[in-house]
Structure formats: C-alpha cells, structure tokens
Design brief:
The complex is a heterodimer of chains A (110) and B (113). Chain A is an all-beta fold. Chain A has strands spanning 4-7, 10-13, 19-25, 31-37, 43-51, 54-57, 64-66, 76-78, 87-95, 98-101, 105-109. In chain A, strands 2, 4, 5, 6, 9, 10 and 11 form a 7-stranded mixed β-sheet that branches. A 4-stranded antiparallel β-sheet of chain A has the order 1-3-8-7, with no helix packed on it. The chains are: A mainly beta (110), B mainly beta (113). The A-B interface holds A 6, 30-31, 33, 35, 40-45, 48, 50, 56, 58, 88, 90, 94, 98-104, 106 and B 2, 4, 9, 34, 36, 41-46, 49, 89, 91, 97-106.
Chain lengths: 110, 113
C-alpha cells in the first residue's frame, strides 16, 4: 500500500540539541509539507517543497531546516534556535488529487 | 491572523442526532476547501472536499456546504455515531497551488450516549 511514514512516533531530546524527524512517502507525490500542531490548535505550515531540490518557508520556519534530496524523503531538523520545539509534527504530501498526512511525531524537549 | 477559523471549540451532540460544524474563512482567493477528522495522537484524516465552483457536495453520511457570499463552510454529519468523536478541522488552499493548506483551530465533537 502506498502511504506516508513518519518516524519515530515519539521523540525525546534535551534542550539545545538538534533533532531530525523523518518523513518518507511512496505515493510518487511531487509536493511535501511539514506542519506543527500545538494542543488545541490547528496545523501551522513550517516548510514545503514542490519539487526535488527546492523548498520554501512556511508561516513558522524560524528554528527549522529541511532538505529535499530525493522525491520520497523530506526530513525536518528542529534546531536549537527553535524556542518552543515541543509539539506534534505532521508531514504531508500532495498531488492533484489531494493531500495525504502521516501519523505524526510527538517531540518533547526536556 | 488566521485565514480560516471555526466558530466553536467544542460541540456536544446526542448519538443518532445530526451534527453541524461551521467554519469561516476570510480569503476570497481560496478555491479549494477540505474537512479533516483528527483523533487523538493521529494525523488528520480526509473526510470530504469541495471546490469553489460548487456549493454542496455529499459523501457517505457527510455533506459539505460552501457559501462564498459570506465565506462560510460547514460540515454536516448525519446520524452521529460514537466513532465520529474527534476534532474536526477545515482547511483552505489558496489559488490551487501546491503551497500548503491553512487550517482552522478545530472543533472537538463529543458524542453523548
């Protein structure tokens, strides 16, 4: 079955450490996205990529970085510059038929 | 501020009743709208979508209504079941490009037995 996989499901990191969240899709979608969700809130766009080797900042890109070296993969790095990194992170991909979301990674920084 | 929002953070309904969840948007250029269902700890699950050239679309037990005059979107769930309990988000895609969705804050639908 085609789908989008995020790993790990839960991630704990110490404050000041960078951490990379994985997102892989086998849907052959050109576009991929990273969203952040805080409790009781909607999703907010961090970064997106419409094609390999290209990506754009979303609404809340500060403190995050991404790469898109392969069509299937869009890893997100949460850097030490991100002031409040604890959140639920969702990856998505899309084509003309619509969007597909992963099951999310819950990052907790202690 | 947010482009898309929902009127109520929580909606409580009796099992078997119909539910109506509302959403207001402010961007007239938005041409594609989606309703998602999100259960605790999971990613959003697609429910139904509608394009701006339509005012109504029906799925299985769900109907989405779009009123472009007042920039209002609603999701109707018929004969609500316990499994419908979740947070429901509306989202908009401005201009049809692959530049991401803008989400509202969500309505938590609670089903009472």
């Amino acid at each position: 079955d085609g789908g989008i996989t995020q790993s790990p499901k839960y991630l704990f990191r110490k404050e000041g450490q960078n951490v990379t969240l994985s997102c892989e899709q086998n849907l052959n979608h050109d576009a991929m996205y990273w969203y952040r969700q805080d409790p009781g809130q909607g999703l907010r766009l961090i970064y997106y990529s419409q094609i390999v080797n290209d990506f754009q900042k979303g609404d809340i890109a500060e403190g995050y970085s991404v790469s898109r070296e392969k069509k299937e993969s869009f890893p997100l790095t949460v850097t030490s510059a991100q002031k409040n990194p604890t959140a639920f992170y969702l990856c998505a991909s899309s084509n003309i038929d619509g969007y597909t979301f992963g099951s999310g990674t819950r990052l907790t920084v202690v | 501020g947010e482009s898309v929002g929902l009127h109520l953070p929580t909606l409580s309904v009796q099992e078997g009743d119909n539910s109506i969840i509302n959403c207001a948007y402010s961007n007239s250029a938005s041409d594609y709208f989606i309703w998602y269902k999100q259960e605790s700890g999971k990613g959003p699950q697609f429910i139904i979508d509608i394009r701006s050239n339509m005012d109504k679309r029906q799925g299985q037990r769900v109907t989405v209504l779009l009123n472009k005059t007042v920039k209002h979107l609603s999701l109707q769930i018929a004969a609500t079941q316990p499994g419908d309990s979740a947070v429901y988000f509306c989202a908009e895609n401005k201009g049809g490009g692959a530049d991401g969705l803008t989400f509202g804050k969500g309505t938590h639908l609670i089903i009472q037995p």
